[in-house]
Amino acid sequence: MKKGAAIQLEGFDEKLDHRAELKEQIRKLEQEKTQIEQEIKMVMQDHEKASSKKYRITWAGVEQARLDIGRIKLERPEIYKEFVKMSGSRRFTVRAA
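The structure assignment produced for this chain is given below.
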């Protein structure tokens, strides 16, 4: 990987326009899905299970134990440094010019 190196993309504007359209469609579909879920939750209120002729729905509480990394880093930096594991990746972003 050449850090900071750039190339000129030729012939990708149509594909990137289509990508932007797909991204907007996905956003709208996710919003619609969330709205349907909220309507069901309003009907369910404090019930954990519901059913229709075709579907079974559960909406149950879940508990998880998680480490408060920020607090460990602040209050016990020596432990944080001992156990921290760095990883790397490449972030793909697209912005209009």
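Interim note for the steering committee: The CA atoms of residues 9 and 21 lie 19 Å apart. Strands lie at 49-51, 56-58.
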